[in-house]
Amino acid sequence: MRTNSGFTFTELMVTIAIVAILASLAIPNFIAWLPNYRLQSGAEDVQSTLQLARITAIKENATAKVEFNTANETYIASVEKPGDPVRIFRTGRMPAGVDIFSTDFNGGDFVEFDNQGVTLNNTDGNTQLINNSGRTKTIRVSITGNSRID
Q1: What is the pLDDT of residues 41-64, one digit of tens each?
Q2: I need a surface site. Which of 9, 20, 109, 149 has the fewest CB within 10 A?
Q3: Helix, strand, coil shares of the chain as percentages rounded to 5?
Q4: pLDDT-based confidence at 128, cuts 50/70/90?
């Protein structure tokens, strides 16, 4: 005599009900977490672009520039050697729901690094990002060329 193996309809319905309850508890937390994740991701991407520009300036014995455009939420990193045309090596756009709120590098919207990795004209400053929830992250650049996220 063979026995039937498998799940009964009642066991299956109880399992589906438990999964539905857990999902209803997890989804609101995920929705609240997502804007902060996008803000942190955008800040880390901007900081890595600043670090890459600094390293590129040193490596290529040139001037590297990161320029921010608050109107369309983008940034462009470029390098310029004397006698050569400007070469763009990275572009970026803020994640959905994240805006470039302000940039202030001694009154400008860009920062430049010289061939020693320090900012040109002793320029320090910051870029501030904001998400839909009103939370902000600030990426600060010191005159020595170091950057950090606050």
Answers
A1: 999 999 999 999 999 999 999 999
A2: 9
A3: 35, 35, 30
A4: very high
**pLDDT per position as a tens digit, 61-102:** 999 999 999 999 999 999 999 889 999 999 999 999 999 999
Topology (CATH level 3) of domain 9-149: minor pseudopilin epsh fold (3.55.40)
- Cβ proximity of 43 and 129 under 8 Å: yes
- What does 105-130 look like in DSSP terms, one character per residue? BTTBSEEEE-TTSSBGGG--EEEEEE
The overall longest dimension of the chain from CA atoms, in Å, is 90
Q: In degrees rounded to 5, what are phi and psi of residue 11?
A: -60, -40
Chain centroid to Cα 114, Å, comes to 24
∠ CA 137-140-144, nearest 5°, is 165
